[in-house]
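Now for a sample.
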Amino acid sequence: MTYKTWLLFLVMETALCLTPGPAVFYVVSHGVRGVPRRVLPQFIDTRGSVVAQMMILAATSMLPEFCILSAYGWLAHRAAHATAKLGVTSGMNRWLARIEGAGMIGCATLVLKFNRAG
């Protein structure tokens, strides 16, 4: 595996960590097609050490994911402190969660409706 290929993998992995939707669609679309013919990704050089290359890709995949999830956790912590300072009570948080849940159910209903129409 070349440095350029690894760098491209790093950039794409970071983008997919920030937006998990495309990664889910990719996995589902490959799962619908059936069993893949190749077990290894196409950019793994089978003439070299496959285990070492897979370990590099695994570490490369975990580093951006760890940083992004840590940032999400920090933002959630800050949001909890900000709502406490504004005087938002647990009852208000419960109602906000219910409203958000109803909105998600509404979006899912619309998706199902439009998928059946097409």
In short: The chain has four helices and no strands. Helices lie at 3-18, 20-33, 50-86, 90-117. The two ends are 43 Å apart (CA to CA). The first helix runs from residue 3 to 18.
